[in-house]
Amino acid sequence: MQLLIARFAGDEAGDRHQHMQQALRYMEEPTMLAEAITEWRQNAIAEGRTEGRTEGLREGTSEGRRTLLRRQATRRFGLEAGNEFSRLLADEEDADRLALAGDLVIDCSSAEELLSRARRLLSGGSPVR
Question: What does the pLDDT read at residue 30?
Answer without folding.
Answer: 67
